[in-house]
Amino acid sequence: MTDTQLQGKKVAFLVAPEGIEQVELTEPWKAVQAAGGEPVLISTQPGQVQAFDHLDKADTFDVDVVVSDATVGDYDALVLPGGVANPDALRTSGEAVAFVGQFAASSKPIAAICHAPWTLVEADAVRGRRMTSWPSLRTDLRNAGAEWVDEEVVVDTSGPGPLITSRKPDDLDAFSKTLLEHLAGAGA
Asked: Contact at 8 Å (CB) between 166 and 175?
């Protein structure tokens, strides 16, 4: 992927105010930037968000847009980083769930890693989709109508837009590469 492949593409990264697994935010973010895209940090509150390295506090990041002010039409893709607390908090925010639901109804890619599919479950965006996640979400996803598989990266194209999912930080290289391919149009 060249450093201009994604020029003009904006990618929404939706997170809660805290509990984000830092590497699941920063690695796809860096991949989008390196390919010439513009990552945008969206959260439920203005200010900064607190990332974590598993259970330990890591860095803070400045919020670019509050989800209540975000419009799906402004973005070319949505990335949902994991961490246990992050998607659990997002799924209690009506505005975050509505934003994810609007993305799921569009033809734009959504990429979710680790525990992030919890927010997709809340938005009723997994029914009939083939996907993966952190193993503890398997039953939740199946109960919500998804076909759960244990694979490094899964791309489901049965819905309006591609749904890209991965299990854990070890899958980040494949996750980011697949996201970039779909943003560039090669994976479509």
From this structure: yes
What are the domain boundaries of the chain? Answer: 10-178
pLDDT of 100 higher than 60: yes
Fold of 10-178: Rossmann fold (3.40.50)
- The mean pLDDT value of the chain amounts to 95
Q: Which of 35, 114, 131, 153 is catalytic?
A: 114
| Catalytic residue selected from 91, 115, 129, 182 | 115
115 is a catalytic site residue:
yes
114: annotated active-site residue: yes
The full DSSP string for 18-50 is EEEEHHHHHHHHHHHHHTT-EEEEEESSSSEEE
pLDDT at 188: 44
